[in-house]
Design goal:
The protein has 17 helices and 16 strands. It is α/β, with parallel strands linked by helices. Strand 5 and strand 6 form a beta hairpin. It binds 5'-O-[(L-methionyl)-sulphamoyl]adenosine. The site of 5'-O-[(L-methionyl)-sulphamoyl]adenosine has 21 residues, from strand 2, helix 1, helix 7 and strand 12. 5'-O-[(L-methionyl)-sulphamoyl]adenosine (MSP) binds next to strand 2, helix 1, helix 7 and strand 12.
Amino acid sequence: MGKFYVTTPIFYVNDKPHIGTAYAVIVADILARWHKIKGEDVFFLTGTDEHGEKIEKSAEKMGKSPKEFVDEIAEKFKSTWKELNIEYDKFIRTTDKDHEYAVAFITDLINKKGDIYKGEYEGWYCVPDETFLTDLELKDGRCPACGREVKKMKEENYFFKLSKYQEKLLSLYSNNSSFVIPDFRLREVENRIKEGLHDLDITRKSVKWGIPFELDKSFTIYVWLDALTNYLSGIGWPNNKDFTELWSNSVHVVGKEINWFHSVIWPAFLMSAGIDPPKQVLVHGWWTIDGKKISKSFGNAIDPVDLVKRYSSDALRYALIKEKRIWDDGDFSEESLKARINGELAADLGNLVYRTLTLVEKFEGELEGTPELDSKLKLNKIVEAMDNFDTYLALSIIWDFIKETNKYVTDREPWKLKEKELGNVLYNLLEAIRIIATLLYPFIPHTSNRIFSQLGISASKLEDCKFTEIHSRPRKGEPLFKKV
Ligand code: MSP
């Protein structure tokens, strides 16, 4: 059986999730469910990134201990993912003991390779992002990633010999051109590497809330070496010897501002530790409002739970996927979400199911006939799009089939038909709906399950997406979506 391992970034716990942070989790859930209907053995990992100065400070502000603080926020993440119907297999926290053990273990491997040395760092530091920055990297004297103020820092530090891996990284990309998706993100890191790689600081002296650095206990390990290792500790490394089976089929879903850490720094750490790189890094774009990144610090965060309560998790998942390609940036608009509920979910999909089942309930004959709609189903194109992580394209092709099926109703006017002819049209409609529900399952799982239950069948798999015989007696239920 094929294996599929998908991860999301682990989230900083300085605040509750917003739709920008929820996006990677929704995308990963869709990929996980897609691979499940393909019949593969899937492992889906998400979690929280709980160490570092930022968290220490946030906890202090709230008058709580770091541990009390992170425990509370980690629960908020879990409950939000539940609202969004996210079916992860493990929720990892960087304060988990087995994770801390794995971080110490990988640091030791890197050290044994001779890739860690002590030096001094002098430059700029962005506290919220916990990153050191050079003069050249600053943008108008501020942090290029978050736009906030930076402070001058001079600190003794331990460094990782990142520069040693320049050529090895470039050959990783040239030997595996789909290591980073989309291609333009691969080119971006490649060009930056060609400008030269600096060694990387991997410890912090001033930060107490972190994993101790065994070589020198007056330091803690910098958040990125800690955080990235979650992808291994989450599947039981170093004690689980079977981790390679999942690891060789792994995909990290990450936002564009952390592509560098995943496509450059992470593979370099792994090369140093003698571990293969992950299979792929899928880099998504930003959700914006009026072109501005959605972020708590910009004061434009949108609460996904609020949207779920008002419109349902399926409506939100659908709207986020149908609005833009994964790697593009896109403006989020509630108006567009509502238009999609009314036009696409309620009218195209909801009506198709409702009117078909209304006719089926009144019909007493045999639900059988000859497939007439199967030629309209572009299954190979959908599979190809999903293999390329193009969820937007896949969903669009599925929707074309829904539209074709609606057109079939208008063309054949089943309300005017009788007996065998009606049985034939209804057979085609029911089989089309079953296939549609199967293909939509990764995207809108609640709705698909409701359709399966109205059809009187249990969920089907990708291999069942062909017209066969009907053995159930469908029963109409509530309309799938109400217009808003
Ligand atoms: N803790 C690190 C990741 C460590 S992974 C080993 C981190 N956390 S974060 O909470 O700041 O961000 C998590 C993810 O949220 C990032 O991938 C980031 O791209 C994503 N997003 C935050 N705001 C976003 C939008 N407005 N739109 C889309 N994604 C955005 O970085």
